[in-house]
Each structure stands twice: as structure tokens, then as C-alpha cells.
Amino acid sequence: MSLAASTNSTIIPCLRYRDARAAIDWLCEAFGFERQAVHADGDTVHHAQLTFGNGMIMLGSASGGGEWGRHIVQPGDAGGRETQSPCVIVANADAHYARARAAGAEIVIELADQDYGGRGYACKDPEGHLWWFGSYDPWKT
């Protein structure tokens, strides 16, 4: 018996941003995400859902408050390093790379063909979160 729910995506990365409203705008412009839901009061984003194809990320404003917030630090508070990152499958890695670079994404691993298949690159968003975008689709191997 599977424990997974029957839905589009059973794993959804969740991120926190100091300026979540600006992050939402940037993620949509630079990476091609689309707003599905944004629940906010003023500058505080309590919960947002951004989609990319049939995938999704959720995000909110960073704070040390609450049970969840006490367990998370921002990349800037950890020497610019991450302990995990979203991996996003794109139809055209070259076009996505050009879009992200034009929007100011910090490229940390240049676009290249990968030994395991596909083509991809890694970048950081304005608050230092690490992202991988590539054409390799592990569901099709």
C-alpha cells in the first residue's frame, strides 16, 4: 500500500524570504513561475503557492517566530550556503538559462550537458537560495 497521496506532485519545496513579495515577483519574472495563491497582510506573506507546469513551490515571509520559523535560517545567515535546493525540470534549459541570467540570477554552475543526461545549470536567487534547472527528467529514464 502506497503512503503517497494521489495528486499532481507529492513533494513541494517550501522556502522563506525576507522580502517575500519581491521574491514572488522575481521568481515569476526570472524563472517563469505563476502565482496560484498569495495570502498576505501588508508586507508579510503568510503563505504563497507558485506553480511551474504541474510542479509547485510554497513560500512565505522569513521570521524566527512560530514553530516552523524556529527551525529555518536564511542562506545569508548560514554563510550563503544551503542544505537543500529545488530541482526544476524545464523543456529548454538554454532558453531558461537566458531568461534567468537576464533577470539577474547569480549563475553558480554554468549551463552544460550532464553525464547522466539532459542539460542544466545552477543559480541563486536574490536572497541566496540555490536552484537547479535542467532538461533531465528522471521520470522518463
Please give the alpha-carbon distance between the first and last residues. Answer: 24 Å
Strand content: 35-45%
Report the CATH C-level class of the largest domain: Alpha Beta
For the secondary structure, the number of strands is 8
Strand order of the largest sheet: 1-4-3-2
User: Which topology of the largest domain does CATH recognise?
Assistant: Signal recognition particle alu RNA binding heterodimer, srp9/1
Mean pLDDT: 93
- The parts where pLDDT drops under 50 for at least 5 residues are none
Q: Could you say which structural class the secondary elements and strand pairing correspond to?
A: alpha/beta
**Count of alpha and pi helical runs:** 3
Helix-strand pattern, N to C? EHEEEHEHEEE
The main β sheet shows up as: 4 strands, mixed
Would you write up a description of this structure?
- By secondary structure, the protein is α/β, with parallel strands linked by helices.
- It has two domains: 1-72, 2-Layer Sandwich (Signal recognition particle alu RNA binding heterodimer, srp9/1); 80-141, 2-Layer Sandwich (Signal recognition particle alu RNA binding heterodimer, srp9/1).
- 18% of the residues lie in helices and 35% in strands.
- It is built from three helices and eight strands.
- The chain has a four-stranded mixed beta sheet with strand order 1-4-3-2.
- The two termini are 24 Å apart.
